[in-house]
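Notes from the pairing session

We agreed to fold both candidates in a single pass and log them together. This is the raw record for the first candidate, unedited. Please don't reformat it; downstream parsing expects exactly this layout.

Candidate A
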Amino acid sequence: MSSTLKVGLVQQQAWPDKARSLQESDAGIRELAGKGAELILLQELHATHYFCQTEDDSLFDLAEPLDGPSAKHLADLAVELDIVLVGSLFERRAAGLYHNTAVVFDRQRGRVGHYRKMHIPDDPGFYEKFYFTPGDAEEDAGFEPIETSVGRLGVLVCWDQWYPEAARLMALAGADLLLYPTAIGWHPPDDDPEKQRQKDAWTLIQRSHGVANGLPVMVANRVGHEADPSNATSGIDFWGGSFICGPQGEILAQAGDDTTQLLVELDMTRSERVRRAWPYLRDRRVDAYADLTKRYRDR
């Protein structure tokens, strides 16, 4: 792995029309690749609108297999631009079995790995349990980094970002970076102070994963208002705020709330230096953590 790595991410709107959404992704990917990005991250479910605002079984028709047309489109881009590309699919694995899946394409090698979202939310406007089966720690290798030509990628997806266990397990398995394709936003009726608290917490928790594990972190979120097709709510305002931070949580680049791209040159030797000064992995009391496998410690 090189001592430096140019990384980029695309923050965009998305629509029910896959062609339109992928065209938006393509424009950002090509701009970043033209500026020398070797690793590019796309947001969660970038090829469609965020369809989980309502429970509608007709929307399963949006799903595709891992080798379907959207994946082929991303694979062809990775070959053409000679990049490592991390995309997101609504995956149809079998009849009645669907996943929220991040896919990694490595230059000429095609798809080199995938990660099926492990933590699945179920909240008003985010009815993901209706659509997605969580990844399986045994069958899907769980929290296992994906080997690429630019390093070992600890790819997680959205709701996974709130769980320190997921980031730590990726770090313990040798990840060089943590990547979080994301779809998160506000309910429009929330007042401004509440909106700010939510966004600050979202940024803080992911920066903290960088700090606790001594790793750079890349987070790609979507932007724009997406209406609730059921009209049960006032929809979601996706807040953007995508960012890239270093292994001490330092913000290296951060987006606003518009369609944009971020590009950063990472010093890939910093994690080693930071971990020598802040040896959290060395001082872990692994002998005392057995209760972490319990749902709750009743006393």
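Candidate B (folded immediately after A)
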Amino acid sequence: MAEKFTVGLIQMSCSLDPRENFVKAEARIREAAARGAQIVCLQELFRSQYFCREENADLFELAEPIPGPSTEALAKLARELKIAIVGSLFERRAAGIYHNTAVILDADGSFLGKYRKMHIPDDPLYYEKFYFTPGDLGFLNFDTRFGRIGVLVCWDQWYPEAARLASLGGANIIFYPTAIGWHPSEKQEFGAAQLDAWRTIQCSHAIANGVFVAAVNRVGFEGSRESALEFWGHSFVSDPFGRVLAEGSADKEEIVIVECDPARVEETRRNWPFLRDRRIDAYSPILKRWHE
């Protein structure tokens, strides 16, 4: 049986200066490690504000190669602190091909690999299709020193297929680096329901797959009055039974620290054997877009 491990989720606000954001993230990572975190996850696109609020070709300058400067800096930090790090970056793969990519560094600083966001949204103030090519690496697992993890990114969190495939790879926990918030004009009417749906869908992935789920979101207002988003924080960890073990606030920078015991994965799956009872012989229609 795998040993217990402790995760740290870095919930923070971001400025317009990528260097300033990286310095802040590094300080938070150090604090998380000092508090016992062994696997630390940063929010989606932590080096910048959430630039997808607009379609602006100049913002492609924020992208970088992977491996590259940020992965090198995170690897150095991971090696020094002897922790694993999940970081979310804007990847420049080639001219005209960019991805929303999570990188995974192990506790010795080694680069375990990357996950490219598979589901790309295109909604008001979430114009990601302008920037990101859909991922092509599949749904991966990564063996860190402290346990086997799955990594998905933000919009992926609404898709049960993604969580199921990540879980079938053997992960004990799925991390979701995230950037989600309210349109200020909608918050009063829809805000509570939107937040509840976001939390509920991820807890449902934990239950359906018998895994821990960790979602880490940013906080703060970004953008002008016409294109503002209020990021709602609430970074949390759910156990395999869908119970929220710890959760951040809506508006404060915080580090959420949670110990996870893989024995709870085993226990939950023994009592609720959803993976055993799957009818894999009957699921081929799911590969169709729609049934006429």
